[in-house]
Amino acid sequence: MHPIPRQNRINQSKPVFMRKLFFLVSLLILALVIWLGVFRSAPSTPFAPVVTQPLAAKQPTAREIVLTPLGGKTKADEEIAKLQRRVKDSTPDQSPALLENLGWAFVNKARTSSDPGFYKLAEQCADAIAVVNPGSADGELLRGHIYHALHRFQDAEQVARKLVAQRTFVFDYALLGDALMEQGKLDEAVEAYQKMVDLKPSLQTYSRVAHMRWLKGDLPGAIQAIEVAVSSGSIREPEPVAWALTKLALYELQSGEKDLALRATEAATRYLPDYAAAELMRGRILLAEGKTAEAITSLEAAAKKSPLPEYLWTLADALRADGKVTQATAVETQLHNTGVANDPRTYSLYLASRGDHPALALRLAKEELENRRDIFTYDAVAWAELAHGDAPAAEKAIQSALAEGTKDGRLFYHAAVIAAAAGKTADAQTYFTKAKALEQTLMPSERSALEQKIALLSSPQAQVSSR
Known about the structure:
The chain is mainly α. It is built from 25 helices and no strands. Helix 20 packs antiparallel against helix 21 and helix 22 (409-421) runs parallel beside helix 24. It is globular and about 80 Å long.
């Protein structure tokens, strides 16, 4: 056999090679078709991604919270910003004192703005102090004051009792007296305030003396003490002076000295322009003088600055007295939307006075009584009980409200209406007479209702039925 030449070998193997190549390509195409068919017909099952748990957000510390810039352009805002910078740049040994100052600056801002959120910032300052200086008495005093401002009176009392057991400091006794007074423990509160006076006579001490005298029915003594408080104040701390002048205005209004009362509110706004409490009091005085339009201007400014139930209620009442029903209704809607959260006791009084939602009024008053057992909370319970149709329960509660001998127009008015409902005409006449003597402190609707009740009680039919 002859060997096949090289060229011929190549030519002869070409068909075989091509057949193999074609076979391989066909297999690849078939595999691709099958693969595509399988994945197209099968349900979509994408690859599960790698699941990673998000890292928990780092909670800001109390120190970081209180150093958050707040903005604002008032003097109080500027003071807060300055203290924030000082705290930020402070050394560990400087930090507690500066945090304390910042906390009290937040308290001042809360008082002047009527924004309770600043009390929570002040509480964060107390928490931050506790981190760097556990057990700090100054930090706990700040905390106790915040508890009091937020109506946590039992908590405030506990803090105050620990403080007075550790040291002898005037404002520890102030806190203790305030917490006791709000819980209706007046005799114990007097002891705490007396200790405070013995340690340091000042605006803060004499203003508390004034309030206790007023609660006990000593109006001349209250005026004397609050005047001493005002004279003890300083322009460097304007808010306490403005507050004391506003209390003086209230006492002067009660004594019938409307001009002196107006002067006191004007002095208060010189210390602290746009002071909401002074604007409210000015509005009340103008209402007592029958200057309703002027009163509304002051009351609108007060309610805009401090939209608390007392402010909104007084404004709405003045608007209704002036025939501005639509505007009054808008203010009352705001009161309904915020009353429970901002001041349940005053909102309860409002509801009971209007005859609206008596069950809610009673619930709010009784819930407040669990924490705040002072005469005004008992008055709120009594008024709500009457609105709810339970005159005997109302009579029992109003006796607790009258127990300290406090002379207050609204208190006497409520007592008179409750006595009349209980069929005790002689008692009703006595309380109506006392309320009439203080009618300048009542709102227009209350004065109108008082006149109607007195006329009804004096009618021949009432006289016959009482025999």
